[in-house]
Design brief:
This protein has 6 helices and 5 strands. The protein is α+β, with helices and mostly antiparallel strands. Strands 1-5-4-3-2 form a 5-stranded mixed beta sheet. Strand 2 and strand 3 form a beta hairpin. The protein is elongated.
């Protein structure tokens, strides 16, 4: 289903189609709802091909913006432009909010909380064991 917002003649892709291109032979990414084939750019990417391959096949807008790409880099993107995402997938990404497609923020927040509370608990227990068993007791 193509929206009237997509200029006539523009190729439209789904996220599922983009996800099929995740290797050195065919590497596609989505940035700001536009689809790019960066396969030929892998060897030239200043951050190395691994950076692009990690983001291959998905929406990488957040990562792209976090790095702070130059105006020249943004101009170069035109050479790799394939088309746009379907309106349905654009809406899907918008509904997810400002996070990467496919991430689960609930598990991220749970992991970040438990990543410090568990070590703190272990440290507390270890300090109590040390205090009661290894420090000399003082006479009352």
């Amino acid at each position: 289903m193509v929206s009237e917002e997509v200029p006539e003649g523009t190729k439209v892709y789904t996220l599922a189609e983009v996800a099929e291109h995740r290797n050195q032979d065919s590497c596609w990414v989505v940035i700001h709802d536009n689809v790019y084939d960066v396969t030929k750019f892998l060897d030239e990417h200043p951050g190395g091909e691994e950076v692009l391959l990690e983001q291959a096949g998905k929406d990488t807008t957040e990562s792209f913006e976090d790095v702070g790409h130059s105006t020249d880099a943004r101009e170069m993107m035109k050479d790799y432009y394939l088309g746009e995402l379907t309106e349905e997938d654009k809406k899907h990404l918008k509904d997810l909010g400002p996070r990467s497609w496919g991430s689960d923020s609930s598990s991220d927040s749970q992991n970040s909380w438990s990543s410090w509370i568990i070590p703190m608990g272990i440290a507390f227990i270890a300090s109590m064991v040390y205090r009661f068993y290894f420090l000399p007791s003082t006479p009352s």
